[in-house]
Amino acid sequence: MTNSATPEAVQLWSVRRTYGSGDNAVTALDGVTLAFPTGTFTAVMGPSGSGKSTLLHCAAGLDRPTDGTVVVAGTDLGPLSEHALTLLRRDGVGFVFQSFNLVSALTAEQNVALPLRLAGRRPDRARVLAGLAEVGLADRAGHRPSELSGGQQQRVAIARALVTRPAVLFADEPTGALDTVTSHEVLALLRGTVDRHGQTVIMVTHDPAAAGYADRVVFLADGRVVDVVSGLDAEAVATRMARLEATAARPSPAGTGAPRRRPDGPGGSAPADGSGPAAPVDARREA
Ligand SMILES: Nc1ncnc2c1ncn2[C@@H]1O[C@H](COP(=O)(O)OP(=O)(O)O)[C@@H](O)[C@H]1O
Ligand SMILES: [Mg+2]
Question: Of 1, 56, 138, 201, which is the most buried if we count CB atoms within 10 A?
């Protein structure tokens, strides 16, 4: 299903996600158009509630947008059946969470083999062990999560997410539960998958130091992309975040209960013919 040769691993076109209805409606994403080039590492930052997790879930096929189009490795997710979406989530994308989400009764090796088993494949032991070696845990294959440190557990989770060779690795606050030193190990590991294997990584983080490992930072506020920046150091990212947090702290009607607008034109379909919204923002073309 996936095609790693696609120049854009993920594209979002005018993606909108509304939760609830009427007076209780919350617009979590308010028309996001973005491209994530294959082989790049993007950090997504923004105040709490700005839509970061919703963006990740929509881009990974874990959630369906209310409006707009998501394309993963050349496949428009909109028309896919639930079954086809399940296959995409299983084989096309990998997901890493703040809380590791390993199966406590299984060893590191069995956890990494799990996606292959769930796909009905007999896990290739050499491939699973190579995946563990890649994250520096060749000697921990037989250990259960409780016998591993937090950083080691997250590295097992990364090996598990990569074992199907997904087009995109999504990470939602992957270092949120780790100390500074261990965080840097995990971030260096993610960076290495991009540099050595051309992996595409999209990571939500609130840590300006974490953003320093990425090729670019996408800043969200109130469900909208407010900036896409390359080459910021941690201090500049922290300054930018502080400004966004200060704005988000002010009471504002935006982003809460705003009525969802339907696009007038052919907005729901892929804008391949140029009649849709402006091309997704691509940091490589901005410089
Ligand atoms: N399942 C849900 N039901 C209702 N509202 C939700 C749901 N998920 C997220 N939201 C709301 O959408 C907004 C964006 O949430 P989220 O994407 O989790 O933000 P972030 O990850 O940036 O903190 C928030 O206002 C949040 O309360
Ligand atoms: Mg979140």
Answer: 201
The predicted-structure confidence for 141-187, as pLDDT tens digits, reads as follows 999 999 999 999 999 999 999 999 999 999 999 999 999 999 999 99
Give 49 Cα–ligand 2 centroid separation in angstroms: 7
Residue 261's pLDDT band, with cuts at 50, 70 and 90, is: very low
Q: Which atom of ligand 1 is nearest to the CA of 29?
A: 14
Rounded distance, CA 95 to CA 201, Å?
A: 10
DSSP 186: H
Q: Which phi and psi (to 5°) does residue 22 adopt?
A: 60, -135
Q: How much distance in Å is there from the Cα of 51 to the middle of ligand 2?
A: 7
| Ligand 1 pocket residue status of 53, Cβ below 6 Å | yes
- The reply to whether ligand 1 has any atom less than 6 angstroms from the CB of 177 is no
* CB contact at 8 A, 98 and 173: yes
